[in-house]
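REVIEWER CHECKLIST
Item 1: Sequence provided? yes
Item 2: Single chain? yes
Item 3: Sequence as submitted:
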Amino acid sequence: MTSLTEVYEGHEREVTSLRRLYAGTALVLLGAVLSVVAVLVATTNLFAGFVVELADWGMSDNFAVVRVAGVLAGVGVPAALVGVFIVLPASHRVRAAAAISASLCLLGVCLFWYAYPENWRYGSDQLTLEVSAIYLLGLFTAVWCLFTAIVNFKTRNDPGGMLEMNVTRHNTILAVDEDDGDDEDDEPAGAGGVGLFGISPEGDVETQTNVDDGGTADPAPVGGPATSDGGSTTADITSPLDETGPATAASDDRSRNRGREPTDRYCGNCRHFEYARSSSGIVPYCTLDGTAMDDMDDCQEWEPNRE
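Item 4: Structure as written out by the authors:
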């Protein structure tokens, strides 16, 4: 049968496709190349002369070199960040914020192309502060989104050196190591496990779960009266010969429990069955054996999950 890992695989997004991997790698390399070329254009005469001879910029050669270098560097940095976002798994909200931040960076580059050099620092209508603020806002937002995506991805995929499962029990997520799979479930507070769930206690104390069929020990009642502040009345004293004693009440409770057992026996309605999140996704988990299950067929230790 189909495992839960295959069912939930489309929602986990833990493995990226090869197309996204190639696209992200290409954008990162493109951003790196554009940044390196921008530095070479601004610092060397070889690339600067190529930029000057490329077109008639209508301005001084030094201004043209700085203008082209600024545009190349301004486009290269957000291109590399977008490439990382394409490869790294992230939520739709983080991806949307990254797209908006990259758009702000591109807007800042366009404004720089418009403002430099006439409206840059020494011009009549200075736009240096506005252009820089827009570009830096987009850049810092993109860096923060990248940091958030990396932290979430690292937390989800780092089991601490071994296989780790997060088992949800009664609206509580517990970390379960694969090596500690022999631990039994904790008993719920306020309800004893002896006699109610069929668990034998430790020691030589005779109870209704570990006493022999031919034994003469009186089983403890399932639900006894509330504790008083001392003394007892005549109505509280019972005899083992009474037909309506605690033994009869316990047998009636066991009969009602057997009558409530489901007719269809499979792991889904067993009290040892839990959903667990492992490093490979959502898996069915048996708390009795402490291991992940391959199928949902019941075993001899099957017990109903209804109390």
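Item 5: Key structural point noted by reviewer: Residues 10-15, 179-203, 219-228 have pLDDT under 50 and may be disordered.
Item 6: Recommendation: ____
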